Structure to design on (577 residues):
């Protein structure tokens, strides 16, 4: 579930964000026998949202891009506005020579880029008759606000409860709606406090640097908790200006206006983090890994032939990394032929030795 | 190559045992035998014949005596004879070594294949226990099909017996095997059987059109 920073703006934010509809993103990985990898990413939804999707590779050259228009069902009177609307599909595809090359694209070195990051490993193990392929793809922790430790708010069991889909939760015999609501509330608190801490820590250096400001760090610290509660209950909007307005209302200090006019760009990082969280948390993610040969093992719950599928929500990789694994094997036909020849030679040799002994 | 002059010199020694020769004579004979295949063969033949003759005589004259009591060191094979008579040519030696090497290689490969297959079968059956869907094998080759078959075969049959609840009905294992072989025949001829989890019995091997329940099968 998407969480906005401030309760008062929560409904507006949800309405605003839900109207265009969330994106469906499919990541398909094709492992080739020679160790090269094919990656296809399909993004479906509103065209404007597709363009703004938080994937660093969108700006990267080398990806083949293909736009497709999906006509909405305008003749269906019973269909929702979403159903009737035209949608777009962007297909990005690229071939990588190695897993290292893939990682460069899927996990850019610049840590200031907020994107869904994946890191992969591929091991090819030669076992004479067979070659085993072990592929592991990890969606890296996507929580942009890590100032606080979630363990201080939630237990592992509660994290598991939050990460479950609504269907899985309902099907769980241990499910208790009251406990879930309490857990969800603590999750929100963790999220809001982490966001607040991120914003707050950007404010402190400004106060330390600019001695002309009439606000001291000590004065700010004294009101830290009061400001947090004021922002949660009363402030409208998620922009740095709106948040600073909330600070100003509590502190009643002209320094806040000076910060707004002189130092607002110091909060760009916060805005980017918030935008990444709000825009990515409602998207639906599907991962599909196609292995060469016969599938031997996987941690997925859906298999079609040698392809394995995972349906993940943002929560699945919000708290920690999410790892998908698949192992397959390919038959080395040449090894069977060679082994057959060796066996024949051995039989012929043993026969001649036996004959000579007689 | 045979050295006729040396052979003539050594000729008398060939037909003597160790205790009939001085240490110097033993040394001379040993040196010659190491280089002369012909004399080596002659000596081996002499010693073998001599031993056989002695054994026959001893068996007849001293039937109650054990071999160790009768065969004095002088009568047993003397030390002046290499353990094996190697009259192989170069390429024969190579062939023999190659046959041993290929025999060992073949044994190692067979063991490797069995090990790899066992690992694969174990992993696939573990996967199948967790995920209730049998893999499609339409694109796989014979080796892969055999692996899948090995991984699912017993599990499916176990499920089938439970599904049809005939474990209790038929207690005789031979009877169960008989039914199993009949069902297998029918599957090969195109019939379908469902397991407890709704999978088609051996549907990864054969595509069938009809679904038959146990009752129909019994009829």
């Amino acid at each position: 579930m998407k969480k906005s920073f401030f309760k008062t703006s929560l409904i507006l934010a949800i309405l605003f964000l839900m109207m265009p509809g969330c994106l469906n993103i499919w990541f398909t990985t094709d492992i080739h026998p020679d160790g090269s990898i094919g990656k296809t990413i399909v993004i479906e939804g509103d065209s404007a949202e597709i363009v703004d999707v938080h994937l660093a590779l969108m700006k990267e050259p080398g990806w083949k891009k293909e736009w497709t228009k999906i006509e909405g069902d305008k003749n269906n009177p019973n269909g929702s506005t979403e159903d009737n609307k035209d949608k777009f599909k962007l297909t990005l595809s690229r071939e990588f020579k190695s897993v290292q090359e893939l990682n460069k694209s899927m996990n850019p070195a610049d840590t200031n880029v907020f994107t869904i990051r994946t890191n992969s490993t591929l091991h090819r193990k030669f076992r004479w008759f067979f070659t085993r392929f072990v592929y592991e793809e990890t969606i890296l922790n996507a929580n942009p606000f890590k100032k606080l430790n979630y363990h201080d708010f939630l237990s592992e069991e509660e994290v598991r409860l939050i990460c479950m889909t609504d269907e899985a939760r309902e099907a769980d015999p241990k499910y208790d709606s009251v406990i879930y609501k309490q857990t969800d509330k603590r999750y929100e608190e963790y999220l809001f406090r982490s966001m607040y801490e991120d914003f707050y820590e950007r404010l402190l250096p400004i106060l330390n640097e600019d001695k002309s400001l009439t606000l001291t760090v000590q004065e700010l610290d004294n009101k830290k908790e009061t400001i947090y509660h004021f922002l949660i209950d009363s402030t409208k909007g998620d922009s740095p200006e709106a948040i600073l307005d909330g600070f100003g209302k509590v502190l009643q200090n002209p320094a806040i206006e000076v910060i707004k006019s002189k130092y607002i760009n110091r909060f760009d990082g916060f805005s980017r983090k918030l935008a990444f969280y709000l825009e990515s948390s409602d998207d639906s993610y599907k991962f599909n890994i196609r292995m060469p040969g016969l599938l031997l093992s996987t941690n997925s719950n859906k298999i079609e032939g040698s392809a394995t599928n995972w349906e993940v929500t943002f929560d699945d990789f919000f708290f920690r990394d999410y790892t998908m694994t698949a192992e397959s094997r390919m038959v080395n036909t040449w090894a069977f032929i060679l082994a057959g020849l060796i066996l024949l030679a051995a039989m012929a040799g043993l026969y001649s030795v036996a004959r000579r002994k007689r | 190559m045979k050295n006729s002059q040396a052979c003539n010199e050594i000729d008398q020694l060939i037909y003597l045992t160790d205790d009939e020769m001085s240490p110097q004579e033993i040394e001379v004979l040993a040196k010659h035998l190491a280089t002369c295949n012909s004399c080596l063969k002659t000596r081996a033949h002499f010693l073998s014949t001599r031993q056989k003759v002695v054994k026959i005589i001893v068996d007849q004259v001293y039937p109650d005596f054990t071999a160790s009591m009768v065969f004095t060191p002088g009568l047993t094979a003397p030390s002046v004879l290499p353990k094996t008579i190697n009259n192989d040519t170069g390429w024969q030696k190579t062939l023999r070594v190659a046959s041993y090497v290929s025999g060992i290689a073949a044994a190692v490969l067979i063991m490797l294949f069995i090990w790899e297959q066992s690992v694969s079968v174990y992993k696939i059956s573990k996967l199948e226990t967790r995920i209730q869907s049998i893999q499609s094998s339409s694109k796989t080759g014979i080796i892969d099909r055999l692996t899948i078959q090995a991984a699912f075969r017993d599990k499916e049959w176990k499920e089938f017996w439970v599904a049809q609840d005939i474990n209790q009905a038929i207690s005789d294992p031979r009877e169960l095997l008989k039914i199993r072989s009949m069902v297998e025949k029918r599957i090969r001829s195109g019939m379908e059987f469902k397991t407890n989890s709704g999978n088609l019995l051996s549907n990864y091997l054969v595509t069938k059109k009809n679904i038959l329940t146990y009752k129909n099968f019994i009829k």
